[in-house]
Amino acid sequence: MSLLSVRSLSVRFPVLRSWWRARALFVHAVDDVSFELAAGETVGLVGESGCGKTTLGRAVVRLIEPTAGAIEFGGIDLASLRPGQLRPVRRRLQMIFQDPYGSLNPCLTVEQIIGEALDIHGLARTREALRARVGFLLDHVGLAPADARRYPREFSGGQRQRIGIARALAAEPQLIVCDEPVSALDVSVQAQIVNLLHDLQREHGLAYLFIAHDLALIEHLSRRILVMYLGRVVEAGDTKMICRTPAHPYTQALISAVPRLDPVANRRRIVLTGEVPSPITPPSGCGFHPRCPIAEPRCGREVPALREIASGRWAACHLAWGGNRMATTGGVV
Ligand code: SF4
Description:
The protein is 28% helix and 22% strand. It has 9 helices and 12 strands.
């Protein structure tokens, strides 16, 4: 059974209406996205900046209210829960943020930051128990228990991200949404944080929804991958298969940009022209058609369904090979 089941999820944000604009406009940040995630699994979510990855991650943990669709976590429909009912579920559903500088309150000590999660969820009954738990968590993520008395400004970026990880772990989660947790860090520190997340997953059986724009990182971390473009999933399936033989032209362009040490594996670089279209006025038909090197006339008219093109592989492209076309858009992957 899946730990997380996301079905036909959409998130739209209203754009301010002007006196000269008759109809209200919306940013279509996430459009009809479906996927499943099992306990202990890592699913990678990749795409360019602004493609809706972070909005999707935030909607999954209910930091953003979805406009439509369903999110089931451990068999519970999150949308049906009132704030008081949501709290015990949210404890098992945590997030690590991209910015280790902005995501920690500079006015609080590390103990207060991590202890807040313990307090909220009633996981430490006494002051001593809270202190001992914070010390344990800091040690667990590679910091010293004595660091509990210090402030975030006294730490490097990598150390701050370790504090963010300790804060997420404090609630004893089953699933952590990792929103580009290493993209703001020095390259030398990135591997340490990735290894830490990997070790914690093995030790605690954590599931990760790992958001990144770095395909090489996702390839290393996750067995399954979702590729997003303009708010929609355009390709999904086994990471190794997709990285070896990408089916969607957008995935092909992304993968062609990943440097390879193996000269045999080197591919011709596909350089996309033009800008990512505005999510306020997305193109008709396939959202990728203004930039697609192999677009044909019907691509501008018909929205391609996300269909299974081979066993366990899904693509939203009229020209992707083989498979059974799905009857509806947004198939579950
Ligand atoms: Fe390109 Fe058409 Fe496929 Fe869209 S549907 S990716 S425009 S070929």
